[in-house]
């Protein structure tokens, strides 16, 4: 059974709800889902997982500084995360408010660690995004995303 | 009076309507607006304008190849577009469908020419985006964007 | 044995040499490598491969329009490329000339198809990049990249 | 006389030297240059300048968290930075190490504030980048960049 860690930063709402919906998808996919606030996450937690999904509100078109601080700390695990499944999700206040650029920034950071990232041809292409509070559409996207990353992590573990 | 060229690629709809709404904003701002399909646009048309706004549907998270072909041709004006006002807008089929990444890709291309690009603290931050057919929200964004680029081009011309 | 297709666009040189170095790495990794110019590549060729690496010179900070035209055509295989291994490489004329943004643009396009992309913690993080003609450093990066995508494609095929 | 603030985060070296070279260019262009470490910079300092250049090392393909924390704090000046000249520079350890993606991330953040950003058709297109310690090429780029942002800020102030 693969273990997927979902790390999120919560500010004005939305990321925690998305994290829960992704976790539900992971469980439906047969995996174990662990949800953690970024403040409670150590780089070693990333290492202990088969896959990691990072979620953040959009701060000036980018992830929250607190989320990037985890990447900065994770330099002490540099190399040890290579080949794990990775994913990202984001919340923005508005359409055109930077949720895609936030997801792509998280993907860039994961690629530097050697994470393996998959897009989606049908749903939110780079990772689930919510404009304002997550609605049913977003939760469906998140559930599907959880199932997908679970399947990817299982393949990668072999 | 500044002259703003709005170049768009039309596929399944939306970009032409956004181009018209931006042109209306340019006129309200006291400028001259010229709308052209990308197929009818030569690099010299970019040179003749004080500012250029490029609009494209989202093709695999990026601008339409036909739009990038104009940039490729425009190498013969390389250097001559420096300091002009630039902007971008995009249409995607879905939320999370790549409209922000498309706008940012166009901005990257413009920066290589030396264009001057301004974001917006209130509206769609990188440039107007529409999810599906442009609704009232999108048209309001486009009008405001037209007024802004007109003001920017005027300042840059001095 | 996995089959890796390396599709490149050649303009003023460099991408073909990088494609050959990646192909050599694929063979060292135990895979079959097929090299094709983008002009000779049909979307069905992407479908026939277990992994695809796209290489392009940098045109205004983005991939060559001809390369993106292949993505546009590939809409007729939309969904059928999901889960394949994907990668990208780029050549730019100068440092700061857009090779990273070109690689990231190709990665964005691949993610929309549902490709699976891996970064590297040690080498060129997003994919091999060359500033000017590929030197020994670049060829070493490409060889290593070929071995890595071969291993990734094998895992994904199971 | 325009006032250009250069804010940098220093880690393993390079950004401070680049900041000084940009400041020299600003002075040559007839402007006043103020250099500040990000730890000593308040959002009000951004407000007091006609133009701001942000410089950071590359942390996982993105700016240092400390730099993004300044953007987070600067929300209390949201709207008040609109129309100012903006720019960015970055240092990475390696080619393909993320300096372009770092500069583009800073540009994204600036656009959300409504900053006005200009690319360069001749030099490092998005902003000066250094691979390792800044050499003569980098310092020349920085000097030229300082002169350019000075000229841009002057035009924008009218």
Structure report:
Chain A has 158 residues and is of the alpha/beta class. Chain A has one domain (3-157): 3-Layer(aba) Sandwich (Rossmann fold), CATH 3.40.50. Chain A contains 5 helices and 6 strands; from the N terminus they run E-H-E-H-E-H-E-H-E-E-H. Chain A has helices at 15-28, 43-47, 65-73, 99-113, 136-157; strands at 3-8, 32-37, 51-57, 85-92, 116-118, 129-131. In chain A, strands 1, 2, 3, 4, 5 and 6 form a 6-stranded parallel beta sheet that branches. In chain A, helix 1 (15-28) crosses helix 5. The longest helix of chain A is centred in the last third of the chain and has 22 residues, at 136-157. Chain A is globular. Chain A binds chain C through residues 78-79, 81-83, 104, 107-108, 110-122, 125-126, 152, 155-156, 158, and chain C through 78-79, 81-83, 104, 107-108, 110-122, 125-126, 152, 155-156, 158.
**Residue windows where pLDDT falls under 50 for at least 5 positions of chain A:** none
Assembly classification: homotetramer
Q: Which structural class matches the secondary elements of chain A?
A: alpha/beta
The CATH architecture name of chain A reads: 3-Layer(aba) Sandwich
Top-tier CATH class of chain A: Alpha Beta
Number of helices of chain A: 5
Instruction: Provide the residue-averaged pLDDT of chain A.
Output: 97
Number of strands of chain A: 6
Helix content range of chain A: 40-55%
- Tell me the fraction of residues in β-strands of chain A, as a range: 15-25%
Instruction: Name the largest protein-protein interface in this structure.
Output: A-C, 27 and 27 residues
At the fourth level of CATH, the homologous superfamily of chain A is Flavodoxin domain
> What general form of chain A does the structure show?
globular
Distance between the termini of chain A: 11 Å
Any idea of the CATH topology of chain A? Rossmann fold
Give the number of domains of chain A.
Answer: 1
The main pleated sheet of chain A reads as:
6 strands, parallel
Radius of gyration of chain A: 14 Å
């Amino acid at each position: 059974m693969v273990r997927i860690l979902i790390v999120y930063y919560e500010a004005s709402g939305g990321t925690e709800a998305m994290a829960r919906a992704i976790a539900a998808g992971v469980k439906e996919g047969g995996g174990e889902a662990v949800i953690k606030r970024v403040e409670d996450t150590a780089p070693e937690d990333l290492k202990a997982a088969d896959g990691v999904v990072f979620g953040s509100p959009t701060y000036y078109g980018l992830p929250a500084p607190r989320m990037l601080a985890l990447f900065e700390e994770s330099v002490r695990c540099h190399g040890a995360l290579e080949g794990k499944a990775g994913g990202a999700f984001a919340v923005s206040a508005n359409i055109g408010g930077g949720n895609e650029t936030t997801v792509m920034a998280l993907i860039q950071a994961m690629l530097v660690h050697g994470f393996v990232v998959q897009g989606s041809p049908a749903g939110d292409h780079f990772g689930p995004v919510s404009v304002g509070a997550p609605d049913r559409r977003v939760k469906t996207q998140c559930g599907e995303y959880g199932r997908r990353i679970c399947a990817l992590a299982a393949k990668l573990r072999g």
